[in-house]
Amino acid sequence: MIYNDRFALLSKEAAFDMQLLQKILPRIQGSNSSVKKALLQLMQVAQDRSLPITEYMEDASKLYLSQEALAASKYPQSARKIAFMLRRLEEDGFTSYWLS
After folding, report:
1. Of the chain's two ends, which shows fewer C-beta atoms within 10 Å, N or C?
2. Cβ-proximal residues to 70 (8 Å cutoff; 6+ apart), any chain
3. In Å, what is the CA distance from 14 to each residue of 2, 59, 76, 81, 83?
4. What's the mean pLDDT when you consider all of the chain?
5. Strand positions, DSSP E, 1-100
6. Whether pLDDT at 100 is above 90
7. Under DSSP, is residue 51 helix (H, G, I), strand (E, B) or coil?
8. Cα(95)–Cα(6) distance, rounded to whole angstroms?
9. How far apart are CA 69 and CA 7, in angstroms?
10. Largest CA distance in the chain
11. Residues 42-76 pLDDT 10s
12. What is the dihedral of CA 70, 20, 89, 69, to 10 degrees?
């Protein structure tokens, strides 16, 4: 982020989106509710809006089925990856950044 500011490589939003995608999301993996809560909180950041986390703890499918909402996110690359990770967690009971 410092080099991005210094050399004006990308917008601040695009640079932060890449950092969230490359540095934070790869560290998240697991199968418990704390992983899901962390992903939902990160989705709030990625979409730049408040989400009813307790409601989505039961079923987050609204978040990952709406491609338009993901594309309109403040950090769209991260939002798409978080949605993928949430879907894997709900469908398979485990998620990791590295699963494809």
Report:
1. C
2. 64, 76, 79, 80, 83
3. 13, 29, 9, 15, 18
4. 96
5. 29-30, 95-96
6. no
7. coil
8. 36
9. 31
10. 44
11. 999 999 999 999 999 999 999 999 899 999 999 99
12. -10
Cα end-to-end distance, the chain, whole Å: 27
The two tokens of residue 80 are 């798409």
Partners of residue 95 on adjacent β-strands: 30
Q: How confident is the model at residue 19 (pLDDT cuts 50, 70, 90)?
A: very high
| Cβ pair 90, 61 in contact under 8 A | yes
Counting Cα atoms < 13 Å in the Cβ hemisphere of 59 gives: 3
64: Cα separation from own chain's centroid: 10
**pLDDT value at position 75?**
98
pTM: 0.94
Torsion of CA 21, 27, 29, 35, to 10 degrees: -80
